[in-house]
């Protein structure tokens, strides 16, 4: 999203594309026509529990969703068919079982959140032979963590109220209605066994590590904002009390109070005159 002076915003799932060309989104494109306009963009994202997110994408694909229009641009080119083979033949993958979804080694649903947040140019984009698999995974995870830390705001789907709190305090905005925590989702309605859950966690090991890191960082940011807000409230209350006392205090410089005892210097002055 751009600064407060602009109503425009850009939306894309891929960090690389958004950073490389923030005006590529149709919602943000009108900014390019404003001559001499300088805009400051704030990058934000929402993360979700990896298992729930994976199951949700499977259900989405099962109903016929595809990402055929996504070019997967990286370093100025799209991946070759050898680098990114399709998981299915035909127009879509509708009706695929969860087992089929998990069995495809080229399924971009695996570790999607890390890949979307990382700088893929560090690992040769979609060329899996560019560097060893273990080093590639660590570079992607470290890059995703770094980019997440650098974002002005990020939220967690599983913590809607805290996400709203941080968003409002970060951008000085106020939502009309409070966020609702809906736990009844399509992913939540899928009954899977423990073995399947473990398999999904294995397929999304990088996402699991990223989510654990993000959850800890999210709580730190939330606690910091709460402490800062409480400190500001205490300062405001103290200033209000001081102002109230100042208004109630008697004005200075009035006539001498009756019964006041003259000081020694004043008595000496009177004696000298006599």
From TrEMBL:
Task: Write down the chemical reaction(s) this protein catalyses.
Answer: alpha-D-glucosaminyl-[heparan sulfate](n) + 3'-phosphoadenylyl sulfate = 6-sulfo-alpha-D-glucosaminyl-[heparan sulfate](n) + adenosine 3',5'-bisphosphate + H(+)
Q: Which GO terms describe its molecular function?
A: heparan sulfate 6-sulfotransferase activity
In what way does this protein cross or attach to the membrane?
Answer: Single-pass type II membrane protein
Locate the region Disordered. 240-264
The alphabetized UniProt keywords are: Glycoprotein, Membrane, Signal-anchor, Transferase, Transmembrane, Transmembrane helix
**Localization terms from the record:** Membrane
- What InterPro entries is this protein classified in? Heparan_SO4-6-sulfoTrfase, P-loop_NTPase, Sulfotransferase
The EC designation for this entry is: 2.8.2.-
Q: Which residues form a coiled coil?
A: none
Q: What class of enzyme is it?
A: transferase
Q: Write out the GO cellular component annotations.
A: membrane
Q: Say what the protein does.
A: 6-O-sulfation enzyme which catalyzes the transfer of sulfate from 3'-phosphoadenosine 5'-phosphosulfate (PAPS) to position 6 of the N-sulfoglucosamine residue (GlcNS) of heparan sulfate.
Q: Which PANTHER family match?
A: HEPARAN SULFATE 6-O-SULFOTRANSFERASE 3, HEPARAN-SULFATE 6-O-SULFOTRANSFERASE 1
Q: Which family does it belong to?
A: Belongs to the sulfotransferase 6 family.
Q: What is the protein name given in its UniProt record?
A: Heparan-sulfate 6-O-sulfotransferase
